[in-house]
Design goal:
Elements: E1 2-8, H1 12-23, E2 27-34, H2 41-55, E3 62-63, H3 102-112, E4 117-121, H4 126-134, E5 142-148, H5 162-166, H6 168-175, E6 181-184, H7 186-189, E7 193-194, H8 196-203, H9 208-226, E8 232-233, H10 235-244, E9 249-254, E10 256-258, E11 269-271, E12 283-289, H11 291-304
Parallel strand pairs: 1-2, 1-4, 2-3, 4-5, 5-6, 6-12
Antiparallel strand pairs: 7-8, 9-12, 10-11
Helix pairs in contact: 1-2, 1-9, 1-10, 3-4, 4-6
The protein binds beta-D-ribofuranose and calcium ion.
GO molecular function: hydrolase activity
Protein name: Nucleoside hydrolase
Keywords: Glycosidase, Hydrolase
């Protein structure tokens, strides 16, 4: 099994990503940590707990993380509704967070591991940057870090993607850390669109989680369609799919830097696809998705859920 720790800000696509991880026989979910992003950390934490309860994720600890970005004021997203998981109502959870802060939980879990944990941050990188700064020795313990963020274009500004823009200083710390980074940015995630055909296939499964995923997609969908997309872009789901089967993704090993100073470019990931800087590559940047296999992976995994 591949052992992963998801750091998230649920978030509709975060929710679907957690569900795929929980349902996959290939994944062991060792922890869920939360951060401010799509909505504030109180809400993302409550959502994470609700999702765990709904999806029967009993033994995985949930730890609450950073309330604010490292330097700037917090921003929130606008496609996930007020609760962060718009379109669905889940009961108040009985599961609670552990007493430890997410940053300490990440550090301890990595230090106690045999170096076999993959970090999967699918929200702003605040917790990860804080963990690296607090305990740099975790770096050698991280097998891989599969990040949803960045791209060669933006979705919150023309240049920046939401997760990197929400805490660019944190993203800069992570990209300068010499970690084995896989960056699943917008160039890739915009190939993962839940079209009507995809939704029909999910609808035909008819179990609790597939119906839940469908409801989430319905709400998310309407927001993306207003922006001219054919359906919902399921960004975060791509990271978990990558952990399950990286062969669905074509990547390039290149140098990536994060802009933190220029206002117009704040949070932009500068991806040196042509190698013009001559700098040592520091990230595997995902560029192409095998869409057919990607959706089959989700659908087959949801089908197995009982
Ligand atoms: C990212 O921002 C959030 O809205 C999504 O959950 C995803 O992590 C996409 O830019
Ligand atoms: Ca997210």
């Amino acid at each position: 099994k591949r052992r992963i720790l998801i750091d998230c800000d649920p978030g509709i696509d975060d929710t679907i990503a957690i569900i795929l991880a929980a349902c996959s026989p290939i994944i062991e979910l060792v922890g869920i940590t939360t951060v401010s992003g799509n909505v504030g950390v109180d809400k993302t934490t409550l959502n994470a707990l609700k999702i765990c309860e709904f999806a029967g994720i009993a033994d995985t600890p949930v730890a609450r993380g950073a309330e604010r970005p490292l330097v700037r004021e917090p921003i929130t997203g606008d496609v996930h509704g007020e609760s962060g998981i718009g379109g669905v109502e889940l009961p108040f959870p009985t599961k609670t967070v552990i007493g430890e802060h997410a940053v300490d939980f990440i550090i301890r879990t990595l230090l106690e591991s045999e170096g076999d944990i993959t970090l999967v941050p699918i929200g702003p990188l605040t917790n990860i940057a804080l963990a690296i700064r607090k305990e740099p020795s975790i770096i050698s313990k991280i097998q891989e870090i599969v990040i949803m963020g960045g791209g060669t274009f933006g979705n919150i500004t023309p240049a920046a993607e939401f997760n990197f823009y929400a805490d660019a200083e944190a993203a800069a710390v992570v990209f300068a850390s010499a970690l084995p980074i896989t960056m699943i940015g917008l160039d890739l995630t915009h190939q993962a669109i839940a079209t009507e055909t995809v939704k029909d296939q999910i609808a035909s499964i008819d179990n609790d989680v597939s119906q839940f995923v469908l409801e989430l997609l319905g709400f998310y969908d309407s927001n993306y369609k207003k922006m001219g997309f054919e359906g919902a872009v399921v960004h975060d789901l791509c990271c978990v799919a990558y952990c399950i089967d990286s062969s669905l993704f074509a990547t390039r090993h290149v140098y990536v830097d994060i802009e933190t100073k220029d206002e117009l470019l704040y949070g932009a990931s500068i991806v040196d696809l042509q190698g013009v800087t001559g700098k040592q590559p520091n990230a595997n940047v995902a560029i192409h998705l095998n869409q057919e296999k990607f959706w089959s992976l989700l659908i087959n995994t949801l089908r197995q859920y009982s």
